[in-house]
Specification:
This protein has one helix and 27 strands. The protein folds into two domains: about 15-200, no CATH class; about 205-310, Carboxypeptidase-like, regulatory domain (Immunoglobulin-like). Helix content is about 0%, strand content about 50%. It is globular, with a radius of gyration of 20 Å. The protein is mainly beta and about 300 residues long. Strands 1, 4, 5, 6, 9, 10, 11, 12, 15 and 16 form a ten-stranded mixed beta sheet that branches. Strands 17-14-3-7-20-19-22-25 form an eight-stranded mixed beta sheet, with no helix packed on it. The longest helix is centred in the middle third of the chain and has 4 residues, at about 175-180.
């Protein structure tokens, strides 16, 4: 489980959480590719976990028959600690999804559950949240519309978001501002998400491959759960950014929507679970560095040589 300028210098639009019902779409004229990435501005919380069930792109049907609502299941459906995504790190939620090209007015994030850990160790969780092993809530995190209509993100620009060719949208989920409100003396924390987005269109590249276990190596149970290849987190680092990929249960991973750059490849060597367990993984990529020109792709495989739970 798992802000400075992230990946793109062009700010195409800024979105703020809103709950109105105005929406529209225009200019749908062909299929394009949409990538949505998540990052976070640094905050003062110890941990800020959210579970995103879906991302929704909102528009109106319009006379041209364009879609009114497009839903995407994120690559990571488990809890995400937003504070792991501070200081330039990003996580891909949607990887090059096929969408009708055109101009859209809203993004919406539907959250199943959320909880925060304060500096003093207290935990505030949404009502009915299934918390990780060893975590108990001390109070309630009030999250209006979390798992119902979700949080709409409306572009501040009257022109909305124009999607054409390959478009990257990076959403900053500002944990410091989203969770920083306590409701008087009730002891309840309030969640008011603050979302900001940048976008750019370019012919993009990718790095992908397989993660395999060396002979005789197994990934042990850790954090009160059984673990497989899906706990492995490949990492790609440039001079300005750090990217994390999600590995599926078969060992496949992919960094999509990559800009031209030199990418140093490694992985997250230690994962800390909420119950205090730490899973350490030693692994090596088949290529330590990849240089991508515009639109290039490269295959890099990983081999896990050791894994231990502490």
């Amino acid at each position: 489980m798992n802000s400075r300028r992230i990946l793109v210098p062009l700010v195409a639009a800024m979105v703020l959480a809103a709950c109105d019902n105005d929406s529209g779409i225009g200019g749908v004229d062909g299929e394009s590719r949409l990538t949505i990435r998540l990052t976070d501005a640094p905050g003062d919380l110890e941990e800020a976990w959210v579970r995103i069930s879906k991302v929704v792109l909102i528009g109106g049907d319009g006379d041209d028959g364009g879609p009114g609502r497009l839903e995407f299941v994120p690559l990571e459906t488990d809890y995400i600690n937003l504070l792991d995504l501070a200081h330039g790190a990003v996580m891909e939620l949607v990887d090059e999804a096929a969408v009708p090209g055109g101009t859209y007015q809203e993004l919406r994030f539907v959250l199943d559950e959320a909880f925060v850990v304060l500096k003093d160790g207290r935990v505030y969780a949404t009502s009915g949240a299934t918390l990780p092993a060893g975590v108990e809530a001390d109070g309630e995190l009030n999250c209006p519309s979390c798992g119902q209509s979700g949080f709409k993100a409306k572009f501040q620009s009257s022109g909305g978001l124009t999607i054409e060719d390959n478009t990257i949208v990076t959403v900053d989920f500002d944990a410091a501002k989203s969770f920083g409100h306590q409701a008087g003396n009730s002891g309840m924390w309030i969640m008011h998400p603050v979302l900001r987005a940048t976008a750019a269109t370019i012919r993009l590249g990718a790095i992908y491959g397989r993660v395999e276990l060396a002979e005789g190596v197994m990934i042990p149970a850790c954090g009160g759960q059984e673990n497989g290849l899906e706990v492995f987190r490949p990492r790609a680092v440039t001079d300005s950014d750090t990217l994390f990929a999600v590995t599926d249960t078969t060992g496949y991973y992919r960094f999509g929507a990559l800009l031209p750059d030199v990418y140093e490849l490694d992985h997250v060597a230690s994962l800390t679970f909420t119950n205090g367990d730490s899973l350490t993984i030693a692994a090596s990529p088949s290529e330590a560095s990849v240089t991508l020109a515009q639109g290039d792709s490269a295959e890099v495989d990983y081999q896990i040589t050791a894994a231990a739970c502490h």
